[in-house]
Amino acid sequence: MLFWNDDRLWDDARTYQILFLGLFLVVGLGTRDWSLKPGMIAVAIATCVITQWMMVAVVRQEAGGRRQKAGGRRQETGGKRQEAESDSTLHPSSLILHPSAFSLQPLAFSLSPAFLSSLPSALVTSLGLSILVRADHYSTMVLACVAAIASKFLIRVNGKHVFNPGNFGIVAALILTPDAWVSPGQWGEEGWYALMFLSCGGLVVGRVGRWDTTIAFLGSYAVLEAIRNILLGWTWDVWAHRLMSGSLLMFSLFMITDPRTIPNARIGRVLWAMAIALLTFFLRNYLFLSTAVFWALFALAPLSILIDAVFPGDRFVWRSRAEEAEGAGEAGEAGERELTALVT
């Protein structure tokens, strides 16, 4: 269970993401007069958590079924050895699984390492969607949240997420509903917002160890905008304003750096971030898409899988939660540790 004085809680970078995204919501509502209803935030959080719980339950049952089948095969293979053992090992009751073993037991499951490991990720996704997505109906937010969480489980290659969950939810809502929109300019271009994002986001990215991705993206995009600024003969304050956009900085620090969906190797992350910067620049300045960063990330997300094949590297694991699962037991918890690594 999570406690505020638990060191493992504060070792997890997602804890800081949750706190900072919550802060951004409060600041935005208090200073920017967003058209965001508190009920919409509550719906987003509840939907993400419930969907995460349900998806983990399905994966858990499937994993248990596979382990049971594997155990059955091992029992069949070792049948002759079992015949030579004592009568106590041959007692029929030892081969019978009580029906209660197949029940979900909601309370016990909710406290399992696998669900607790994935809960912070669900909260991060819900807060991110609350900040970025606007909708006229609660059903639209529900769709965005369900799509975001489900994409982590249903769209995988070699066990790795293909799409950033929050980004997938945004694009799904924009494509599938008529009333969803994203307002990249909602933060304006005031300097103190940029300072807030850089300080808070910098702490999170530093703990995750993915500064290379942020620097590659912002650096490449800044160079492209500088070249365009020179060719058009604009003053440099225009260039500065375009780079100080709150939504751009938030994307650079909290979305494109998601360690579970970006390339594993550093060289791969740098190349991938540069490609997203190039596509963002094109979509924003030549197709005039105000939501260019989200479409660029969505379009190039599958490229991460190809880059991993060319530049292999160690896959990121949320260490504190993985260690918590490892401490839960010995051989009997091996499946739980494997499930924890899969669903977080």
Describe the structure.
About 11% of the residues have low confidence. The chain has 17 helices and four strands. It has 344 residues and is mainly alpha-helical. Helix 3 runs parallel beside helix 7, helix 6 runs antiparallel to helix 16 and helix 6 packs parallel to helix 17. The longest helix has 40 residues. A two-stranded antiparallel ribbon has the order 1-4.
Percent of residues in beta strands? Answer: under 5%
Radius of gyration: 23 Å
Q: Separation of termini? A: 16 Å
Low-confidence stretches: 86-109, 320-332
Structural class: mainly alpha
Architecture blueprint of SSEs:
Blueprint: H1 7-11, H2 13-31, H3 38-77, H4 79-83, H5 106-110, H6 113-132, E1 133-134, H7 138-154, E2 156-157, E3 160-161, H8 165-176, E4 181-182, H9 191-208, H10 211-232, H11 236-243, H12 246-255, H13 266-285, H14 292-300, H15 303-310, H16 319-326, H17 334-343
Antiparallel strand pairs: 1-4, 2-3
Helix pairs in contact: 2-6, 2-9, 3-6, 3-7, 3-17, 6-7, 6-8, 6-16, 6-17, 7-8, 8-14, 9-12, 10-11, 10-13, 13-14, 16-17
Key features of this structure:
two-stranded antiparallel sheet, about 350 residues
Task: Provide a concise account of the structure shown.
The chain is built from 17 helices and 4 strands. The protein has 344 residues and is an all-alpha fold.
